[in-house]
Amino acid sequence: MSSLSFRFIKPADQPATLPPSKIKCHYEEPYLITRLGRALHHHLTILDPEGSRPLVLVCIGTDRSTGDSLGPLVGTRLSDLDPSLKVYGTLARPVHATNLQDTLTEIEEAYQNPLVIAVDACLGRSESVGSITLSAGALKPGAGVNKNLPQVGDLHFTGIVNVGGYMEYFVLQNTRLGLVWKMANIIAASIQHGVLLTNRYHQETALEQPLQ
Predict the structure, then answer these.
(1) Which architecture characterizes domain 17-201 according to CATH?
(2) Closest CA to 129 of 159, 158, 165, 168
(3) Cα(187)–Cα(70) distance, integer angstroms
């Protein structure tokens, strides 16, 4: 993926209003990485204005199903793009229905007041296939396949990988990997962009603080 030109948002540039609680865009829209990255940055600075909360990514899914591999693909790409990120859920070590609760317990024990971004695939209407959403609040994994799983995250990304409403497990198993791979790269790059903007924001804010 081509390199991006990142623009750091200084405190004076911060919008007076809150960012939208939900953004939904097709993965082929132009400048999508910049748009999602900036929106993520705004959410992160609101949820953690001092930059004191450890950031943790929980990428949910399994490599045994092409449609449900979005999360592990995002987690793997993020680990490659920025090894310093705390990522749970990769192709090598996926986070799925059977180990999700144990993973959340591990995160709770390892980090004090973490800021958690969750990522998962979902099914939707045919006209929404290929859409990526960034939403405030917790993710409800497994809702589309009638699983009762714990909610995850302060923010979450979802990718609509196929059509829902009928034989969901079969649909996920037969989702095109090419689409999932493209969406995973967009989500991973958007998260990297947003985290970089946020880190620079906190660094600049710290430099502007008067000496005591």
Answers:
(1) 3-Layer(aba) Sandwich (3.40)
(2) 159
(3) 9
The answer to whether 171 touches 123, Cβ cutoff 8 Å, is yes
Q: What span, in angstroms and rounded, lies between the C-alpha atoms of 133 and 66? A: 19
Structure token digits, residue 38: 């900036």
Q: Is 93 helix (H, G, I), strand (E, B) or coil?
A: coil
Percent of the chain whose pLDDT exceeds 70 = 88
pLDDT in tens, 114-162: 999 999 999 999 999 999 999 999 999 876 556 778 999 999 999 999 9
Structural contact between residues 101 and 69, judged by C-beta atoms closer than 8 angstroms? no
β-sheet bridge partners, residue 160: 122
The tens digit of pLDDT for each residue in 71-117 reads 999 999 999 999 999 999 999 999 999 999 999 999 999 999 999 99
3-state DSSP helix/strand/coil percent for the chain, to nearest 5?
Answer: 40, 20, 40
Contact 130, 28 (CB under 8 A): yes
Continuous H helices in the chain: 32-47, 70-81, 100-110, 168-173, 177-208
What torsion, rounded to 10 degrees, do the Cα atoms 78, 84, 89, 94 define?
Answer: 100
Q: Which residue type, as a one-letter code, is found at position 71?
A: G
Residue 210 predicted with pLDDT over 70: no
Question: What single letter denotes the amino acid at residue 73?
Answer: L
